[in-house]
Structures are given as structure tokens and as C-alpha cells.
Amino acid sequence: MRIPELIERLTHLVGDDGLVLDAEGQAAYVRDWLGKWQGSTAVVARPRNAAQVSAVMQLCHQTRTPVVPQGGNTGMSGGATPDGSGAQVILSLNRMKRIREVDPVNNTLCADAGVLLAEVQEAARAAGRFFPLSLGAEGSCTIGGNLATNAGGTAVLRYGNARDLALGLEVVLPDGRIWNGLRGLRKDNTGYDLTSLFIGSEGTLGIITGAVLKLYPAAAGRATAWGGAATLPALVQLLTRLQAACGERLTAFEMMSASCLELVLAHVSGASSPLAGRHPYYVLFELTDTEPSGLSALMEQAAGAALAEGLLQDCAIAMNEAQARAMWRLREGISQAQVRAGKAVKHDIALPVSRLAAFVEEAGAALAAEFPALPVVNFGHIGDGNLHYNVLLPPDVAAPEYARLTAALNRRVHDLVAQLDGSISAEHGVGQLRRDELRRYKSPVEMDLMWMIKRALDPNHLMNPGKLL
Ligand code: FAD
Ligand code: MLT
Ligand code: ZN
């Protein structure tokens, strides 16, 4: 179908105000947050509800029009950016913003896919409950995008990732049919786990339009600390000690290297280090509980033991909410600081926690030998075995050299990850960034299984082509 006719038919389905047709309005949709990918589209369609999504998908199915689903467009793997052909329609969920139901007795919340993560958290809070998914982009990313990427963030250690926090989904299939799987059940063994299948599928199997999410009791107290350590093995040992001493009260254990903190201090206004000295590694760790009494004492005891044992060289415990927030600002400023510092080759890897230190030692030595001029910015959710092992490039690096270095660095880092039984994609998704890498590291059997599912659900290959597979 010709583009003007497609636009005319889409106008009937979602209204004039449901389409973005001008280049200026489309600018925020065709470029990703990192500024790494730039695509183009003839039209951004913004349906208001699942019925409208279904109508748009039926039209795209009939006309064989490829579709790129998009939530908050904060993804880090280029998954929500269309290609440069202009032939792909962007289907944005950003007008689907209804909290459909909060059930405090069942501890569930049902939301449209376009509700921002921060809005889900707020709705849970208003009901005296807690929705634990938490990440730096929570004010801009959508719950649909979180589920489509199986997002992680800073509370996975205690509560799991997005997949662990969803009980049911509503999905519009590539042919426009609506699957209503919005069940708020913690037990449901009625066959294949379709909810889990769509979670993490990065818009390649269907459009998530709604979700039933798990809620938890609201935490009544938290204790936050910032420690400096000499080595990564010391931090891994500290993690084990804290888990033994504090159990599930340990909700966050976030690491950053010295060079990473320096980057934040240089690029984030108002940032200052909680500790006087410089340490090779830093950790932000937090305890939370529904019963606040005793939490501060537990933190003081745990931090004191870590200092006495030499696992930490220094430690600051937040004395109030403002100090805790300042510590979190350092952690959450890392992504922005990296963008301001220039180009980076980003690795989002997962390893068994027991092998993190071996990876960092071996990768550090290999990169120092082969790329001595390139600084490594290493940080991440080490309680989950997830490192963002990024390598900074000179700000003026030319495109061919950027591509050459990306390929060479990926090979060193990802080969080592594979040797240590890790994953080359922990929480940001595969998108277009790691699509070729995925083929290299997944077994032919696993790739074949994924393709069989893809062909069965999307035989015309219209859902987010060029991403993931
Ligand atoms: P988008 O970027 O719009 O889309 C991401 C992918 O999901 C695309 O493939 C898209 O096609 C697909 N998609 C989106 N919505 C739907 C839908 N409704 N149905 C089907 N497919 C859909 N990620 C983490 O995991 N942990 C972090 O700690 C973290 N920190 C971040 C910090 C910052 C400052 C930024 C900018 C990003 C961070 N991210 C993090 C990455 C990003 O926020 C997550 O991947 C988030 O889940 C993406 O949500 P989104 O709504 O922006 O999705
Ligand atoms: C984070 O943990 O801050 C993120 O996943 C974002 C990033 O890697 O930049
Ligand atoms: Zn992360």
C-alpha cells in the first residue's frame, strides 16, 4: 500500500491527533536515547487502547507493513529505533496510560503498557504497597518497554527482574488478535508460559498492551551506605557476608570503579564523593525492611565488620534521606556522565557472581595489553552478576575506527564472557546492538528454537524486523 493511503486509513483508526507526521514531531521517536541510532518513518501511530492497537496491527498485517513498537524510547540497544528506509511504522504506546486496577489484597496492579515506571511505583505507593522495579530511566521508560526488554535495575537482588514481577499480560498479536492473559494468579499451570514468552521478546512477537504486576508491602525503613574497597574480590566477599547477616533486607549492592566515579564527579553537577580518599572500587549498598527498628544498628554492625575485616577501606552511612539520595544520584548519574564524556563501547554482561573477579582480572589485563589508551568504565549490579563493562573511546573517534574498535573489543570481552559461562546480554536487551553477537554465541539449536517461535507467531516477519534475531 502506498504511504498516503496507509496514513489515511491509520487516521480513521486512531484519529488525527493519534498520528505524528511531521519531521520535527517525529525527531524524538526516530533517534535513541544514547544518540547512537537514527532511523526514519513515514508515520508514528499512537493508539489510545488495546482495541486501537489491534486495528492498527490488522491494517499492518493486511498491508504487510513492518512495525516498530516503542515505549519511552530509553532502551540502550537500538531496539525501538526504526531502520532508515522510512517503510517501518512506529507504534508508540505513549498514550496508553491508564492504571486499570490496584488490588491491595491480591497485591497486584494492572496497568496499560504506556504507563511510566515511576507512575506504576507511585500508584503502588498510593495504595500503601511497593512496586520494586527501579532504574535510572524510571521517569521516562514505560512498563511495556520494561517487560519487552525484561529490564533489571537496582532491586533485582531482592525482587528479581521485570519477568519476576509480572503475573499476566495483554498482547496484541501480529495479525491483530488480542490475547487477554491478564490473570493475577501466583499459581496457574495451564500449559505453556506465554507471559514469559512475550517478556524479553523486544517487540518481535507482539505488542504488550497491558500487564498485571506484583506488589509488595511498603518498606518502612531503609539504611544506605557507600563503601570504598581495594579489590573486586573484597566486594564479592562483602556481598556474601551481607547476605548472611542481613538476609532479604539487603536490597541493593551496586558497584562502580574509581574511573567510573571520576566520570560522574566530572560530568554531573553537584555530585561529590561521600568519602575523602580514593579507592579502586566503590559500592552502594542498601538495607530495607517493613520493620524499621534495628535497621540502622544492623547497618552499623555490618559496615563495622566489613571495615574490621578489611573488606572495605572506608565507609559512609547515610545519616538522613538527603544523604541517601545524594549517594543514589552518584549511581544514577553514570549513564548521563558516559554520554557527556563521549562515545563508548558498551557491554551489558552477566556472569556467575563467583566468576566476576576472574572476568575483571582477565579482561582488564587483555584490554590493557591490546588497547592501552582506552579507559574502562566498569560498574553494575554485582549482586546479580551484571557488569556494565564499558570502554570509553576518544570523543573525536571517526566512524570506521569506532566500528573497528567495537568489533575488536566485543570479541575480547564476549569471548571471555562465553568462556566463563556468562551472557552477552544481561538486562538491556539485544536490539540491533547485539544481534550479530547473539548469533555468534547462542547454539544453533537455541537459535533454531527462537526462529521457530518467531515464524509461528510472526510469519510475515513484520514485528520489529532487524532486532534481536
Ligand atoms: P523502549 O526503549 O521504547 O523499547 C525497548 C524495546 O522494547 C524495543 O525493542 C521496543 O520495540 C520494545 N517495546 C517497547 N514497548 C513495547 C511494548 N509495549 N510491546 C512490545 N514491545 C515493546 N535498563 C535496565 O534493565 N536496567 C537499568 O538499570 C537501566 N538503567 C537505565 C538508565 C538510563 C539513564 C537509561 C536511559 C536507560 C536505562 N536502562 C536500564 C535501559 C531502559 O530504560 C530499559 O531497557 C527500559 O526497560 C526500556 O523501556 P522503554 O519504555 O523506554 O522501551
Ligand atoms: C545502569 O545500570 O545504570 C544502566 O543499566 C544504564 C547503563 O548501562 O548506562
Ligand atoms: Zn544496569
How would you sum up this structure, described in words?
This protein is an alpha+beta fold. The protein has four domains: 90 residues, Uridine Diphospho-n-acetylenolpyruvylglucosamine Reductase, domain 2; 119 residues, Uridine Diphospho-n-acetylenolpyruvylglucosamine Reductase, domain 3; 117 residues, Alpha-Beta Plaits; 79 residues, Alpha-Beta Plaits (2-Layer Sandwich), CATH 3.30.70. Strands 12, 13, 14, 15, 16, 17, 18 and 19 form an eight-stranded antiparallel beta sheet that branches. The relative contact order is 0.12. The chain binds flavin-adenine dinucleotide (FAD), D-malate and zinc ion. D-malate binds next to helix 12. Flavin-adenine dinucleotide binds next to strand 3, helix 5 and strand 10.
Can you give keywords for this protein?
flavoprotein; 469 residues; binds D-malate; Uridine Diphospho-n-acetylenolpyruvylglucosamine Reductase, domain 3; alpha+beta; binds flavin-adenine dinucleotide; Uridine Diphospho-n-acetylenolpyruvylglucosamine Reductase, domain 2; Alpha-Beta Plaits; binds zinc ion
CATH topology of the largest domain: Uridine Diphospho-n-acetylenolpyruvylglucosamine Reductase, domain 3
The count of domains is 4
Q: How can the largest sheet be summarized?
A: 8 strands, antiparallel
CATH class of the largest domain: Alpha Beta
Radius of gyration: 23 Å
Q: Helicity level, as a percent range?
A: 25-40%
Distance between the termini: 26 Å
Number-wise, the strands total: 19
The set of bound ligands, ions and cofactors reads: flavin-adenine dinucleotide, D-malate, zinc ion
- Looking at the overall shape, the CATH architecture of the largest domain is 2-Layer Sandwich
| Content-based structural category | alpha+beta
The stretches of 5 or more residues where confidence is low (pLDDT under 50) are none
Strand content: 15-25%
**Outline type:** globular
Total DSSP helices: 16
Average pLDDT figure: 97
